[in-house]
HAD-superfamily hydrolase (Viridothelium virens), 484 residues
Amino acid sequence: MPMFEDDDFCVDRPISPPKSPELHRVQLSDGYRSSRSNPQSPNADDGLNRNEAIEVPATRSFISDAQNYMHNLSLSPSMKDRRGSRNSLGTSLPIPSRESRRSMLSWYSAVPPHDGCKACSSMPPAQPTREILASQLQDISSSKVAAVKDMAFVFDIDGVLVHGDRLIPEGQRVLQILNGDNELGIKIPHIFLTNGSGKLEQTRVDQLSKILKSPISIDQFIQSHTPMSALAEYYSTVLVVGGEGYRCREVAYDYGFRNVIIPHDVVAWDPTIAPYRTPTPSERRAAWPQDFSQTNIEAIMVFSDSRDYATDMQIIVDLLRSEHGRLGTVAQDPVAQRIPIYFSQGDLLCPTEHPIPRMSQGAFRIGLEAMYKALTGVDLERVIYGKPELATYKYADEVIAGWLMYLHGEEKLPKNIYMIGDNPASDIVGGNMYGWNTCLVRTGVYQGEGNDRDNPASFGVFKNVLEAVETAIGKELGKDFKLE
Ligand SMILES: [Mg+2]
């Protein structure tokens, strides 16, 4: 049954009233009353009781129903759906090759792991006699050493090892064990895989090393936009969105993009493009405006959470609707002339200091998809990196193999990989789909009873990260393997 008459399409007025309308009380303003009243007959009975509120039935307009405009891949992932990816372009995304990444061995030879890190400089120096003893022990325990080289841990960070800048004490102990505080004095391979974003990898590992009081290398660290560095081979001039101030511009240049534009630059060039935004004097000074009517922006990279939804969405939609990324134009064909858009991760929500989780990049993306579809009538093709997307796990394989090479001189992928995370919808679903053992911990997002119903962890649910690591080590190296 049609809800609206043809000539009244944009008005929320149902032809037949809903059975149980939710009523909103509306008090008419004086101005509204006088305009509707006949000035010649102020007391005429025109059907309006001017001294009382009137009641307006709340209706549900299909034109305002965002569900119609949502991308069919935008729902949060669940093992129940058995959906491998939220990407509308499939999963063959570029990731950095081993050769194109900085060599970890050259990094280590150039910069000792502890150099310049306050946390590491406060740690006791390596003890040669202890290392000799460890190597002797490893010689006589070759089967356990082989098992160590055939396992690896992949840690989510927030909610597992830390809460923001606050240490989860079990996280510190876990890194001591994996860095050699065990019966063989052997380093057990582990990497860090986070959907965090918005800073240089080096900045983040320095902060993390300090909190966890263990040295962490950028070569064992992946944040949501790390694999997107591979895109620098494909695009030169890009719009980078999200993050604090100008940090994401710095990240993009570090990845090798050559002309990195951020929304502040566009607003500084033409303030009318964002009518609800007045840049502060310091933003104006720091912006790099150029003549964007003469610049083709080749791709849009959402690196981190938007700090200004209205401005960022306006500029992104303008670009998506433009002719080949030229601001100020509107393409005749919204598909053929559209530039690509990439998101560094797809989480709908993220935990913060606020008691209720806050909206994250996934929510921002869904808003964009709905707006784009409402304006053009077509689905927005987009690409998402981060957990639980396949590209990020392929990249994690590269990083694990490289780290094993650094630690033990063997470049291979261990058979037994354990993902430890607090979020069933990203850490666990992704690890499960990729065939890793998954461990869900109760120190972050997940607080439910038993295992998660939609995305159950394959190796189990644990009180904290230490319990998960101890259990996994017990399985791989034997229950008698001493963690001291
Ligand atoms: Mg987490």
About this structure: Residues 390-408 form the longest helix (19 residues). Confidence is low (pLDDT under 50) at residues 1-44, 103-126.
